[in-house]
């Protein structure tokens, strides 16, 4: 055990003394989250809006006035019936329709409660989501204003509905996506490079000749990255939550357990790469092209898999992060438990064992 | 050297990769404290044999014991009792001198106290006390080389395998390096060394020369020169190597 701890110590020295490693480990996750987060959260300005006012009273007029004077929204059409919604969204100019229920004003006074519906064109889900929250903010303010001189507070109920993308599939997708990318990068690329470095320097021979057995060597190599990747996972979820308000609706423990599983998978891929790659350069190239690009492009992180040509869709089935992203999305955004993600979990498990098996086989052949 | 104690015993060692025979029926013994030169052109099968002796790969057939341990069944004990240094540089550049010593001592299971005591002695001997907390990358090559050798025998192995240890080193440093080898040999450590430098072959107690997977000559340098009617080991080597067919 002492031997193993000495080994771990040395691995941490390697990592902490290498500026490049430190940058990849700790700089990149933060930069990526910031980039993606802020690129997506662009400010709204003059979003074209249509109104379907079934009530046409002073309250609705006042609300519409408030909204249009905010600078974020611009009134372009007044609709006569809900059937027009589809047509007008398809034209593409109008991104948002506000629907007031009949007798909105009366209900607000009498029942202290009235409904307004927000319909959005969610083909650009991030913007749609943002529009809804801006509108809700304005409605909320108005509600507070009219409540000031009333004893019985009233409330405006705003329900939103997304058109074209009812499940809001890629809202907040960047957090699961970044998580998959970073964990893949840190675990697979960094381990494969660090093992390849030992080979390149000739220290691997020394380690193999020593009484350490190969399993200890491999464990010693991957354990630091397991720990650091886990910290990264926490940082990413934490930043998502505190900086961008990405929720974790499901079980946090399950989320972390799945992350650890994915880290194991990435580590086993890293080990596999290192059995193939003789030098750090080769390990880096392999990780880049075999792991990074598919993770970013084919996993559904940025581009929806549904819209890809069929051959690429088929390839996406063998991309591990695809399943991890599905799991994350389900746990974080839909709040479901293991009963909904067990299939993906099993696939990840199978892939992990597959890669460990392959590496062992390669390793044995080399020793013969 | 103690001729009565044989620390390496190899009898009919064969190693085949498919149809290719890398080691063809090797038999030799090495005595305790002996400096044994293991020579041969590239592709002659030296590396394959060393890997087997170090417990890194299994022979196809043959009886082999190293430091008294069987290469088939007692690998763990075997590995504990040998040291190894290769032509590729084997210390970690980003660790300090002491961290390297502590790491290598640690993987051979030495206790903290032993490591500290022996590290102090070693640094004193090499006159490297001032560099204790300097990173390896800041040391000149000659020092690194000496340190690497000292680290390879830090756990007091029975045998140390040196695979072209002086590749790319200037003659003065090579000479100093051999002083360390002699000293280790005097302390009873057996030295098993491969080299491309024929002047170094002269420093060995005995030399074996491999050609095409077989040992074609094995004796003291003086005897070999006499047998081959040669002025130096270079001529002996060339006379044998010319017959080779497996050249990389």
UniProtKB/TrEMBL annotation, chain A:
Keyword Membrane recorded: yes
A cellular-component GO term for this protein: plasma membrane
Annotated signal peptide: none
Family stated for the protein in its record: Belongs to the ABC-2 integral membrane protein family.
Pfam families according to UniProt: ABC2_membrane_3
PROSITE patterns: ABC_TM2
Subcellular location: Cell membrane
Membrane-related topology note: Multi-pass membrane protein
Keywords: Cell membrane, Membrane, Transmembrane, Transmembrane helix, Transport
Superkingdom classification of source: Bacteria
Residues passing through the membrane, by range: 21-40, 171-196, 225-244, 250-273, 285-305, 340-360
Domain named ABC transmembrane type-2: residues: 132-366
Protein name, per record: ABC-2 type transport system permease protein
A GO molecular-function annotation: ABC-type transporter activity
TrEMBL record, chain B:
Keyword entries, A-Z: ATP-binding, Nucleotide-binding
Recorded GO MF terms: ATP binding; ATP hydrolysis activity
Coiled coil: none
CDD domains: ABC_DR_subfamily_A (cd03230)
Top-rank lineage group of the source organism: Bacteria
Stretches assigned to the ABC transporter domain: 8-237
Protein name: ABC-2 type transport system ATP-binding protein
Taxonomic source organism: Marinifilum flexuosum
